[in-house]
Design goal:
alpha+beta; 6-stranded mixed beta sheet; 4-stranded antiparallel beta sheet; 3 helices; 16% helix; 31% strand
Length: 159
């Protein structure tokens, strides 16, 4: 369960996590295991950005499924998905936050109309072939979208 704090009072805490001071109070994000296909170092899967916790999903996994798997009882946050996919620069910022102090390594980035997966991270197993991609075909990212490329991992916002 994600945690909201107001002042020094914690309402619920199920596991240790990081916090972000936002206009709606702080958000605590429980840590989750990194995706199985990730071949680079990820210091933390579960970081607060605004009022959501962001996680890197497995390839071929929707954000609905990823949020429920990583933080049982949580739900995908469509507004957070849209924020992360609002620009390539914003997506890169969220991906960097997921990687911790060094960020998740990537040498390439761009926006593509393949599907509506939103902000994604591609790990092709080589440092010179790791991408941050914003996937936007129609009106924007959806919580139930599943990318057909198993190396493309969705950046999911969970509440």
């Amino acid at each position: 369960m994600l945690v909201r704090e107001t002042g020094s009072r914690i309402t619920t805490q199920t596991s240790p996590g990081t916090t972000d001071q936002g206009s709606r109070g702080a958000v605590r994000c429980p840590a989750a295991s990194p995706p199985a296909q990730l071949t680079t170092t990820m210091q933390r899967n579960g970081v607060p950005v605004g009022s959501s916790c962001f996680y890197l999903a497995n390839g071929h996994e929707s954000c609905n499924d990823a949020c429920n798997r990583m933080v049982p009882g949580s739900m995908c946050d469509a507004e957070g998905l849209e924020m992360a996919a609002s620009s390539v620069q914003q997506c890169r910022a969220v991906v960097s936050a997921l990687g911790g102090s060094g960020g998740l390594d990537h040498s390439r980035w761009g926006q593509y109309p393949d599907n509506d997966a939103g902000c994604t991270y591609v790990d092709s197993g080589r440092p010179d072939n790791r991408w941050v991609q914003v996937m936007r075909r129609g009106s924007g990212p959806t919580c139930d979208a599943v990318d057909g490329d198993s190396s493309r991992m969705r950046v999911c916002a969970c509440k």
